[in-house]
Each structure stands twice: as structure tokens, then as C-alpha cells.
Amino acid sequence: MAQSSRGRAQDRAKVAAGQDHEVKHEAKKEGVSKDTVKKAIKNAGNSRKKVEAEIGRH
Fold first, then answer.
1. Does residue 1 carry a pLDDT above 60?
2. 10, 24, 39, 47: which has the highest count of C-beta atoms within 10 A?
3. Which among 21, 10, 20 is positioned nearest to 48, based on CA atoms?
4. Structure pTM?
5. Mean pLDDT throughout 2-6?
6. Secondary structure (3-state) at 18
7. How many Cα atoms are found within 13 Å in the side-chain-facing hemisphere of 6?
């Protein structure tokens, strides 16, 4: 069965705090530590845009 791109696009819009590789990727992309990303997820939720905005405030 072919996967729709919709599900994947939605998935990319979120950062899964429990997925180490996702946290690592976001940390590397933003130039911050994994702990900083985890704290941002805790404060702002797992929306990638909100996490990036939260990281930008620090």
C-alpha cells in the first residue's frame, strides 16, 4: 500500500522527545544541546515551529 505524503509532512511538523535521533537532529540544526531541545519541547510542546521559537528565545 502506498503511503501518502500527508502523514509524513505532519510527522515532520513535530519533534518526538522520546526519539533520540529526532532530538539530536533538532539540536544539531539549531546549534544547541539535546537538553536545550528537550527543555524547549517541555515548555512549548512538540510542534517543531514552537520548539524552534522557544530555542530562539534563549
1. no
2. 39
3. 10
4. 0.81
5. 58
6. coil
7. 2
- Contacting residues for 41 by C-beta, under 8 A, at least 6 apart: 15, 17, 23, 51
Question: Is the distance from CB of 37 to CB of 55 less than 8 angstroms?
Answer: yes
Instruction: Give 30's DSSP letter.
Output: H
Q: What is the pLDDT of residues 6-57, one digit of tens each?
A: 567 778 899 999 999 999 999 999 999 999 999 999 999 999 999 999 999 8
Contacts of 51 (CB under 8 A, 6+ apart): 15, 26, 37, 40, 41, 44, 45
Phi, psi of 8 (to 5 degrees): -70, -40
